[in-house]
Amino acid sequence: MAITQTFNDVNDDARNGAYSTPAQPAELDASKVTITVAREFKPVPPASELVFGQVMTDHMMVVHYDPVNGWSAPEIKPYGPLSIDPASSCLQYATNVFEGMKAYAGPDGRPRLFRPDMNMKRMQISAARVALPPFDTAELLKLIHKLVALDARWIPTVKGHSLYIRPTIIGTRDSLGVAASDRATLYVILCPTGPFFRTGARPVNLLAVHDHVRAWPGGTGGYKLALNYAPTFKPQQHAAKLGYDQCLWLLGEKITEAGAMNFFVVVRRDDGDLDVITPPLDGTILPGITRASTLDLIRAHPSRTTLPGLSPETLLHAVERELTISQLAAWAEEGRLLEAFTVGTAVVVAAVGRIGHDGKDIVLPAHEGALGAVARALYERITDIQEGRFEWENWSVPCA
């Protein structure tokens, strides 16, 4: 009887408004941002001294999520450490997602971003893959615009240099229970950067690796998760000891990625045209923004644009299909393998000089200035678009 009375009392209180339905957790809202400008600004290193990822700018953006209140008011504040619980999900179970973007100084001096909507979409998909709290990517992009504008003095004006942008979301659920994180911290940091490979005009060399697998069907290779990267470090150290710059990741005979980049080859067809081939997005390969841009530009040549340095009579065919290391060796033997190159946000386009496999090297033809004709055309066109010197498909977005 006492228990029934208690339930009835609760129901009466609810009908009388003593209890109310909890409000919906707050959405990410860029209009609520508070900006605290650093009291002292750090010196900006000369472009010639920049090493990828080593020097951070003056400010960062941080916002937190909890399941009751939702997203907090974002903060743009001086760059500094984060404070998280030692039991946080990100430390225990690798619930970490990040993106790689860049800002460039346009001809008018305004900062510009390259296809940022694609980065936001990929970050949203990656966060969902590890069950992190959802967020409005349009609002995150507004915050990135504000942060880049505030630290615009850090954007190098030397060609091939840029301001690297690293949006990151980490799970901060403070429990060792094996479960999805219902708390998160979303933050953005910036660093000025020069060329990713400091090899000058020398092409990069790859070691084909089949005894360590970067990604597998049904796994997480198609998402930009931190957990994809750490297992690659040991094989990379081994490749470096053997004189190679990066690993070419194999799945059996199949080629997937090169280092943390997408991989392309240029093969002469029987009719004289050129196939520009890259492995398909089968779940083991990250859908790179530079990869998609490369394919789009190849398909546009020469019908909608002529890529720099290439004749309109040079017909390119964008091909997404399975590539094997045996095929590369056979094409090289036949003299049909004209170029191999890698693409990615950090590197843009980099030529491959040789590929080590089973104790032998597949040697690519040498080209003046390292890049072959197709790779150079793509590098020049993409960087011209990124820096606002060539308008194309609204890919270059000025910061508001």
From TrEMBL:
GO terms for biological process: L-leucine biosynthetic process; L-valine biosynthetic process. Pfam families: Aminotran_4 (PF01063). Its cofactor is pyridoxal 5'-phosphate. Its EC number is 2.6.1.42. Keywords: Amino-acid biosynthesis, Aminotransferase, Branched-chain amino acid biosynthesis, Pyridoxal phosphate, Transferase. One of its GO terms (molecular function) is branched-chain-amino-acid transaminase activity. GO terms for cellular component: mitochondrion. SUPFAM superfamilies: D-aminoacid aminotransferase-like PLP-dependent enzymes (SSF56752). It catalyses: L-valine + 2-oxoglutarate = 3-methyl-2-oxobutanoate + L-glutamate; L-leucine + 2-oxoglutarate = 4-methyl-2-oxopentanoate + L-glutamate; L-isoleucine + 2-oxoglutarate = (S)-3-methyl-2-oxopentanoate + L-glutamate. Residues 1-23 are annotated as: Disordered. It comes from the Eukaryota. Belongs to the class-IV pyridoxal-phosphate-dependent aminotransferase family. NCBIfam families: ilvE_II, PRK13357.1. This is Branched-chain-amino-acid aminotransferase. The lineage of its organism: Eukaryota, Fungi, Dikarya, Basidiomycota, Agaricomycotina.
